[in-house]
Amino acid sequence: MIMGMVFLVFFSFVVAASAGNFNQDFDITWGNGRAKILGNGQLLTLSLDKISGSGFRSKKQYLFGQIDMQIKLVPGNSAGTVTAYYLSSLGSSHDEIDFEFLGNVSGEPYILHTNIFTKGQGNREQQFYLWFDPTKDFHTYSILWNPQTIIYSVDGTPIREFKNLESKGIPFPKSQPMWIFSSLWNADDWATRGGLVKTDWSRAPFTASYRNFNAQTSKSSSAGNSWFTQSLDATGQARIKWVQKNYMIYNYCTDTKRFPQGFPPECSLSSKL
Ligand SMILES: *[C@@H]1O[C@H](CO)[C@@H](O)[C@H](O)[C@H]1NC(C)=O
């Protein structure tokens, strides 16, 4: 009995410790030493200087999942830099679920830019300010992706939902497995105030940090409330409304200049898009 308990404690420790090891879950894909896995796989850093950015990719592909990553963004003057963190399949009709963090001069707000591609087609941008300074601490950025819905969350607060509206003729990602990608790169031709503010290379290298990656992919759950069948409850819907009212700064579904002939069909089919 005691032995069993000791074993159980030891076993759960091993399981917990092996969840989120960057050495096991990711490969550094570019940057010539600018991306680093540190602390026995517990921390990953990307950096950018005038010569190159850097990036990593998951070893595995995912077809649905509850995927969480803690990120601490480039501090100080990060104008012109973009930290992209996204799920994507490959090819011309790929699916993609994006977080992109657009840097800013010190003290001015980052923009969280989101987009969703289905069958190679994106143009579904929504942008947000955050309700905290994302450079001071690690915060959790999550994607819940199941056959019914895609929900973006920040520290557990849902900010965006893309529902499966296939029955209305709108493609939904559900058959192409995706990798997780991240990269830190220079985009000062467009990122900060539409390209007006340039990257200050005297501040380089710029560094973003990652920790506590966790991907739930097992479809069943003994508790019965698996991520696989989850949808937004009333509280979640109220939270999304709060974020959209107070922090959303761009929504393709209200951009009449861009869509003079009428909005994409999903815009009118779901008020929560
Ligand atoms: C940067 O700060 C300016 C001024 O507050 C703001 O208009 C802009 O949305 C901020 N973010 C980016 C990425 O440009």
UniProtKB/TrEMBL annotation:
Glycosylation-annotated residues: N104
Listed GO biological process terms: cell wall biogenesis; cell wall organization; xyloglucan metabolic process
Intracellular or extracellular location(s): Secreted, Cell wall; Secreted, Extracellular space, Apoplast
Species name: Quillaja saponaria
E.C. numbers: 2.4.1.207
Family: Belongs to the glycosyl hydrolase 16 family.
Protein name: Xyloglucan endotransglucosylase/hydrolase
InterPro entries reported for this sequence: Beta-glucanase-like, Beta-glucanase/XTH, Beta_glucanase, ConA-like_dom_sf, GH16_AS, XET_C, XTH
EC main group: transferase
Keywords recorded for this protein, A-Z: Apoplast, Cell wall, Cell wall biogenesis/degradation, Disulfide bond, Glycoprotein, Glycosidase, Hydrolase, Secreted, Signal, Transferase
Function per UniProt: Catalyzes xyloglucan endohydrolysis (XEH) and/or endotransglycosylation (XET). Cleaves and religates xyloglucan polymers, an essential constituent of the primary cell wall, and thereby participates in cell wall construction of growing tissues.
Post-translational modification: Contains at least one intrachain disulfide bond essential for its enzymatic activity.
Family matches, as SUPFAM superfamilies: Concanavalin A-like lectins/glucanases
Gene Ontology CC, one term: apoplast
Signal sequence residues: 1-19
Domain annotation GH16: ranges: 16-210
GO molecular function: hydrolase activity, hydrolyzing O-glycosyl compounds; xyloglucan:xyloglucosyl transferase activity
Active-site residue numbers: E96, E100
